[in-house]
Design goal:
alpha+beta, 142 residues, 6-stranded antiparallel sheet, 5 helices, single chain, Chemotaxis protein chec, globular
């Protein structure tokens, strides 16, 4: 496994909708680009190049004859974007992306082991409140 991402990092988007990437996730050198797509439960999923290529291979293996696989593939593929990281370690998410995912000014950038998730802070707080109480953290599952 390549990079491993963990932790939660509160961020404020600037007036142009740019997100400053947490240096704790990438060290001193942010990647040149990242790939975003529709995540699960209302977040954006963010991938580095190598893991994104693995994800594309997984998606290519879905059964096009299965209506559920086909619908998932269409929706997730349509949501994919490549984002350039600027010299200051920021990515421009774009107004349409902010609206589509309900991202306000306050977001959380969460490590999710093999990728990163971007959540609207209020949405993640609600998600954690709703889902966190049923998890037995001693064994890591509900």
């Amino acid at each position: 496994m390549g990079n491993i991402f963990f932790g939660s990092y509160p961020r404020n988007l600037d007036e142009k909708g740019r997100l400053l990437l947490p240096s704790a996730l990438f060290g001193k050198e942010a990647p040149a680009s990242l790939y975003i797509l529709r995540g699960f439960d209302g977040c954006l999923s963010v991938y580095l190049e190598d893991r994104f290529q693995e994800l594309l291979s997984e998606l290519a293996s879905l059964n096009q004859r299965d209506p559920g696989d086909r619908a998932y593939l269409r929706i997730v593929s349509a949501s994919m974007k490549q984002l350039k990281v600027d010299a200051h370690g920021r990515v421009l998410l774009g107004v349409d992306t902010l609206h589509e995912y309900g991202l306000g000014n306050e977001v959380l950038v969460n490590g999710a082991i093999d990728h990163i998730e971007i959540w609207d802070k209020a949405a993640f707080d609600a998600y954690r409140l709703h889902n966190g109480s049923g998890i037995d953290f001693a064994v890591g599952r509900s």
